[in-house]
Amino acid sequence: MTDFPDFAPSTMTELMKAIKSDLSDAFSDWWRQNKTAIAGAIRTVSQSAVETQKSLLKGHISEDLADIALHSQKAALRQVLRHTKLMSLVLLQSVVNTIFRRIGWALLNQTGINFFPELIAES
Amino acid sequence: MKKAILFGCAMTLLSSCGMLSFAPSVDAKATTNLEDATASMSHIAACIELGSCAGRNQISQVEDRYVDAFSKVNLALSIADKTETSGDRDAEAKMLFVDEITECRDAIKRQYEAHKQFPTLQNAGLAAPTVVICELATDASRALSRL
Question: Does residue A44 lie in a domain region?
């Protein structure tokens, strides 16, 4: 794919092709980052719950401490759900930014006007 | 002609720009603070797991780490609170982010109180969830600061 500073599409097809490629990269990045984080978090919380249960049964920890640990595990699961929701919004924003960034560069390279300075940092 | 079409597209997109904000961009300093806090909590978790500072009699070995983590999370929370939004949708994202950091702060405090109170936290299943909670808040900050 053409680098942003050289991107000057002459047809809408060319522009759409570039946007599709950018979006594919953005989705891949997002998925790679989130699938490991969420799966890892759930695995850790599950292991902790088993650990608490075993230690309580063996009498290594008190009921009060087990209660605090379970409360913390519940909080971690709540954090996972909250994080999933937030990352969905981040993905939507990333899609918007990806599209606008590509269009912004096309406009900048052809008109000299930077319509999206928050997305395009000229060197 | 080509420039006119592109200019028209840009104007249309610009006019809808305000409606297309789903998540705010966050100052990268929040990420640095959360990374530091998470590193401190990981250190404490490892120390508890290995048994070298598992209970109330050894908490002094890691008390500085707790204080540092708590302080860094508070700084991140202050940055998150000051993040500007432009509509209801990105305000929702900001609220979720603030809640993630608050959850991390509460988890640190909860673990600290338990560490001061109980003879051992080893194999209690308490330290790892705290790290998970703070790691997720750090991931959120990293993702928002890249927007």
Answer: yes
Confirm whether the ipTM is greater than 0.85. Answer: yes
Name the phi and psi angles at B24, rounded to 5.
-80, 160
Chain A CB contacts of B139 under 8 Å are 33, 37, 83
The confidence score (pLDDT) of residue A94 equals 94
Domain range for A50 is: 10-111
Number of domains in chain A: 1
Tell me whether residues A90 and B144 touch, CB distance under 8 A: yes
10-residue averages of pLDDT along chain B (147 residues): 56 58 96 98 97 96 98 98 92 98 98 97 98 98 95
Evaluate whether A16 touches A99 at the Cβ level (below 8 Å). Answer: no
Structure token pair of residue A47: 């292991």
The answer to whether the beta carbons of residues A89 and B147 sit under 8 Å apart is no
What pLDDT does B1 receive?
55
**How far apart are the CA of A122 and the nearest CA of chain B, in angstroms?**
17
Q: How far apart are CA A117 and CA A101, in angstroms?
A: 9
H or E element that contains A45: helix A12-58
A118 found inside a domain: no
Domain ranges of chain B: 22-145
